[in-house]
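Minutes, project check-in
Item: structure for the 275-residue chain
Input as provided by the requester:
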Amino acid sequence: MDIWEEWLLEGRHHGSSAQERQTGLQFIETARQAVEAELRLQPGQTVLEVGCGAGDWLPRLLAATPGGGVVALDGSAGLVERARQSLETRVPAADAARVRWLCQDLRAPLPSDLRVHAACGRSVLQYMGTDLPAVLRTLHGALLPGGRIGFFEATPLDDPAPVPRAMPERLRRKLEANWWALPWRMGVADYWRALRDSPFRQVRMQHSQQISLLDATPELIAGVQATRPVAGEPPLGETLLRGLSPAEAEEARECFSRAEAIGVAVSWCLLAAEA
């Protein structure tokens, strides 16, 4: 099991309650519907799913493109194999045969013969960082004339750090500085600049943010601290305490243990464009 496979299947939502997982699934459904509305897939077309993960989206993409095909790309060989095996149990063999599998990093050049009518993904471009402009050019090169892209991405740059409400200001400032310094974080302006300067036309973005002050149940605190936002990164609980003295770290842990409320934000951006 590679680090992305472990993260997606076991580490990302470690400690989450059943209700939180259900809320996450509803959020994913909303994201997919928004992207599908932008792509307007038709029978006979071919769509590239970037970051196919365990293959949850593939049956819907196949259903939207009868007579066409789906290209499933992921950088994790373990996830590609899981997706392939899962798909064989969820769709007829004839539909499973319409999938082309690619295991590679999105930063690498795509196969020269790859030409698709659309490309989509969820929570993929947010990890590209400064490579995003080059990635967008790569995607543009794989699209047929008039092709479309649709991506649903997190935009956490300005989100409040998930820290307890009753925390001394001096500690809060240090934890927030660690939160905002995370290297994988991208904001709305970062996406907009990359799309604006890309070869794409008819660029569209929708941004939404929901910030909630939630009851700090032990399950919620444990879930926040154990979450790994990116494969290979330490749990969020460790990241937030980075650079604190032993005494400060212990004080912060004590604040978490007796917290009554914690701020949690859900911020996303729908990116759409045409070749």
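Outcome recorded: The two ends are 36 Å apart (CA to CA).
No further action items on this chain.
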